[in-house]
Amino acid sequence: MNGRTVGVGAGVLVAGAAALSLALWSTGGGRSGGSPAPTATHSYPLSEPPRTIPSVRSATPAHGPGWRPGPDGRVVVGDDRLADEGRLLAGELGLRYAGRTGARAGDVALALASGSGGPESYTLTVRGDRVRIAGPAEAGVFYGTRTLKQEVHAGGTAPEGVVRDGPAKPQRGFMLDIARKPFTAGWIENLVRELGDLKYNELGLHFSDDQGFRIASTSHPEVVSRNHLTKAEVRRIVALADARHINVVPEIDSPGHLGAVIAAHPELQLRGADGRAPSGAVDIADPAAARIVDDLLKEYTRLFPGRYWHLGGDEYTALLASDPQTAYPSLAAAARSRYGRGARVQDLATGWLNDRAATLRRAHRTVRAWNDGFFAGGKVQPDKALQVAYWTGREPGARDPVAYLRTGRQLINYNDEFLYYVLGQPHGFRYPTGRRIYEDWTPLVLRGTRPVPERYDRQVVGGSLAVWCDQADAQTEDQVAAGIRMPLRALVQKLWDPGRPPLTWERFRALAHRLGD
């Protein structure tokens, strides 16, 4: 066929050159009543690409009426492993879930099928008054159902043609600080639904800090704050996330930010040569500190079965001193005792991080830590498998992202210039805007406003918006939800397809408003 190519973001829209008059006949049980009945003389214009968030990366238009859910429509599956996706979509579109059976006119068919894309890719075909969504894995099929849900939102029509879609970045996240500000389980569940519809696949929960420890514990109940999530509530959140192909990524930050643990175990408090006790810092020379943290890590691996875990590792007060060896001589002595002559406090801290990573590796977890927990030089090097959660160049010793990329590490973009939503806006932070992310940020913009070289693109495996509750009362839950609404949408657009967006910011914002929540 003689065709033409029209850009759709960084993807393509392949269009036929000639207008066609189509004769379409229903088969296998009649029409759904959702789409206008075509006849042999009914001519349809070439379809437009679907308008969704994130935008689809490739669409081949066709002539035809498209598809809308009708009163007799069903969702059918070709594999029982897609039953959860099928039931969810049927409930959302007001269709009947018919299980594993053949499709007829008016139906949506979900299928597992091999293809050239990754496990999150899918193909969505609208033809003959029916829809077929196929992908190599359940996740991709689920994302196809999210595209269809947006297409038919508020009485819309899924356009005739074929969508081939999949994400550029495999880790698309949102992180929530529930340690400083306890969020209700219901609010988090609503957030999970929103993230799923936007094709995010990670929800980070920072649940331990100086201000609180927010999830029930059986191994160390004494560290848990009065206002906390029960394990039953967490299991519901995890199950809801799993149904939407979202990994819940827990974080117990250590060896700093452990004030809630220290409140219950003051004997673990780090003290300097002057006798001062830095906030939130445990004595990493004391084996008891490691035992408690490992107890908690092991306990929560049973609660959070997902692949990823965040160890924190940032802002350990001993390493913020101008001369850690002099300020914390007991740590310096422990470093030399464990790692030999010339070892420093940073080596002891790196050893702590590696030991915690080993605890989680035995539970088959992929582990990340904040970039300022990785130190240059030293006798002890961070575990090679640790992902770098790159957030800042502000902290002492924080290095340019290329310094980590050169060593072959994977980086996740948490750039505090664009992606940190810090309640109360302290320390020079400003609430991020969707427009700035949409127009000025890409996954390669890891620090400040300048991107790293394109050759490192494959090592930058994703990004995450992060809500930090430094001033917990500065916003209510509803205000946080409203404040992150457009940043979430802009971010996933750039993680799904980092190229130039197909819509201007004004049109993108209008689309977000039309699609609602």
UniProtKB/TrEMBL annotation:
Species this protein is from: Streptomyces sulfonofaciens
Protein family membership: Belongs to the glycosyl hydrolase 20 family.
A Gene Ontology molecular function term of the record: beta-N-acetylhexosaminidase activity
Domain Glycoside hydrolase family 20 catalytic: residue ranges: 172-476
Name assigned to this protein: Beta-N-acetylhexosaminidase
Region ranges (Disordered): 28-52
Record-annotated Beta-hexosaminidase bacterial type N-terminal domain positions: 50-165
UniProt-listed GO biological process terms: carbohydrate metabolic process
Keywords: Glycosidase, Hydrolase
CDD domains tied to this protein: GH20_DspB_LnbB-like (cd06564)
